[in-house]
Design goal:
It comes from Streptomyces lunaelactis. By secondary structure, the chain is of the alpha+beta class. Helix content is 38%, strand content 16%. The chain has one domain. It contains 2 helices and 3 strands, in the order ββααβ. The longest helix is centred in the middle third of the chain and has 14 residues.
Length: 63
Amino acid sequence: MTRKVADCRKFPSVMNCSLTITGEEEEVVRAASEHAVSVHEHTDSLELRAQIRESLEDEKVPA
């Protein structure tokens, strides 16, 4: 299974957040949404989780 990556550096923020979360898709969506709520003051919702899911990329593994 391909691991997924959520990278805060790809989104503008006042705090210039540098957090990157890597893991299985559901783990990353859950952790990224918790981070978005606790650090970036977003509201946890199905819409937020859908936006996070759409922004995920496959982990690039060095050969």
